[in-house]
Amino acid sequence: MTATLTYSERRVGLALSVLLTLLGFAMAAAARQGVMSVHGFMALALGLGLAVRLGGALYDPPPPRERMQRYDDAPTRFGIAMTLVWAIIGMAAGVWVAALLYWPEATPPWPATSFGRLRPVHTTGIIFGFGGNALIATSFHVLQRSARARLADSVSPWVVLLGYNLFCAWAVTGYLMGSTQSKEYAEAAWYADLWLVVIWITYFALYLRTLARRAEPHIYVANWYYLAFILVVAMLHIVNNLALPVRLTTAESFPVWSGVQDAMVQWWYGHNAVAFFLTAGFLGMLYYFLPVRSGRPIWSYRLSIVSFWGITFFYIWVGSHHLHYTALPYWAQTLGMTFSIMLLVPSWASAGNAIATLNGAWHKVRDDATLRFMFVAAVFYGLSTFEGSFLAIRPVNSLSHYTDWTIGHVHSGTLGWVAMIVFGAIYTLVPQVSGRVDMASPRAVEWHFWLAVTGTLVYVIAMWNAGITQGLMWRTYDANGALSYSFLQSVQAMAPYYLLRTIGGAMFLAGAAICAWNCRATMRAAQGEARDRPLVAQPAE
Amino acid sequence: MSELHNREVDPVTGHDTTGHDWNGIKELNTPFPKLVIWALVLTFAYSVIAWVLLPAWPLGRDYTRGLWALDQDEEAVTGYRALETGRQGWLARFTESDLEELRADAGLMAAAYPAAQRLFGDNCAACHGTAGQGGPGFPVLADATWLWSGEPAEIALTIRHGINAEDPETRYAEMPSFDWMETGDLEALAQFVAGLRDGTADAGSPAATLFSENCASCHGEGGEGGLGVGAPSLTDQAVIYGQDAATVLETLRHGRQGVMPAWTARLSPAEINLLALYVAGLDTAGDEAGQ
Question: How many Cβ pairs within 8 Å bridge chains A and B?
């Protein structure tokens, strides 16, 4: 980290580290005890560690002058490493809680290991830790390459990545200590939310400043998606997390929303987290790495424009489909349902555009596991968006809602689409930023691919069966008007599916572990830096 | 930079590129596919039809009701009523208070049995086990000895008002603490009670005297229970909290006061009667399941 920073940048970094240390100290001192004080000490430790590292290297030799004529890849490498660390944490937590559903009596006797605390560790670890780091890391890479410009400054990428990971660590450790806002995918405490706003604004500013320096006349479509991701996630995060802290010295807070308005805001947030966190940013990834790896032009420029605006316009309306048959007014449910149906068209147009891009490169899909990851991602993107629109139809939802079908649907999206495109991007990007032609072990990529695909299929098919079985058992009446099954019977019927889900998830985790090992080996065997260069060198600040 | 000059024809598809080039990434100028336009038209038509028929758009304090004028509250109530009507043919009979007469009607019991099983599974099985086999802290319902009574009317009373429950008419039962006893006596008594289960208890020992002075009034002279005061049999292998000497000692020292909740707020009188008959039938139907 320090080697690529100039003397003045190291000084700025040192000042920021001292500020973080002071912030951590203030939090710990004000809170005195409990979650907030632990989080204060975590910030303090991170700030101190960074201060020691930067202070110690303050008078080291400055980076070579031609630094400005290169891309800034050090933050990307760090972001990829964090992506893989969080992949292991998040997926291991997922496999663990999946196993607990099959062997509930195996729950250890400590509060921190209860299902209720570990489940958000899984969701936050995967969505924000794994997905978020992958998005930030790849966005830096894609932004610089498609703009042919170096990142606008060398300090803020580190602020974004380190600050973002501090947020993730605060969130996950908070859940283990029993702290939660009780909003799904927005469980982190109020001060962590505020911290994320600061980090996110830095990220947005860095993105725009770099884009403004681009050497290409047009902005590539991948950047529109990344920008939509950054901008809309900021809006969702702020609105859904509006809360009044009980005290400024504790982690507890009250949301400003209540009742059905709270439910609507929560699922407007929840579904658009799927849309703009788990879809838009990853479509940016797809639109960059798929043509790069396949060596093919994007099949249709026009289709990519219409899909982009279709997706951004329709998605914002559909959150209410999470609240069918609830206290939410019928009219809001109808709107959510109809916009979900229309949303299918731009979603499939994107998937189709990606798959048609592979025309002329199918032999590469056959031979190259990395490109196969991206192809499978596009296919699962198409499958899960179709499934999503289908489940949003009110009568269909009456069967699927509250069942494991929802879990199956989410994982067909997150395992099949999001994680697959991340792995495709990682296997393209890691050799490149390590100055190599290929990964350290191409065979391991092949193993990872088949483990991931098999694991996903086992998981998703088990959950489809589980969900439809549950839904039918809950609504079946016999000729005398009595329920045909007790709830307990529907729980007992889940056992084989829950076991299969655990096995599928474990396979997926094994693949991710292979990937982490392979990336580490590749980065350790790096042969210099990425060889491509910005079109126009940046003037020194 | 002139984009037109950069345009080239892609040999695979035959389409030209847009002329944009991002570090090697190009885009084809493929015409907008007609299929996508038709798909948009189709899904939009679906939406318009849904908006016309269903409640859809907000209008200030009101909303468009739709031609079908559906109301989800009404739909829920109507659906529930329809199901309820379907059950009335047999469920209404269970509001009668003469449970023995109901039990004698084999046709009626056969029609109601599946519903009783679901009711038991959804309301009782979590504590008493799916087959009434009980578990640590929860009495067995599938054997022949009862805390209170195996008569359906008495079981119905227990379900209605519970045991030690927050209900003015609840049954009351307490195993008192015998912590005033000497430790040696307590241990001997615990050994004796543990021995009642397998018949190894020595009827001539001092512990037997302690038993007859302190325990027999509730549990019966030989510990056989069944006195209808809420005290379990100590000879039927099914003591609520366990019958090894250590657990018995724990029970003797600290006493027990288990709770069975009152169910009147959740179950209808007919459902309670039906369940009472079902539970009364468990001791014959579930002999195999009892442990």
Answer: 158
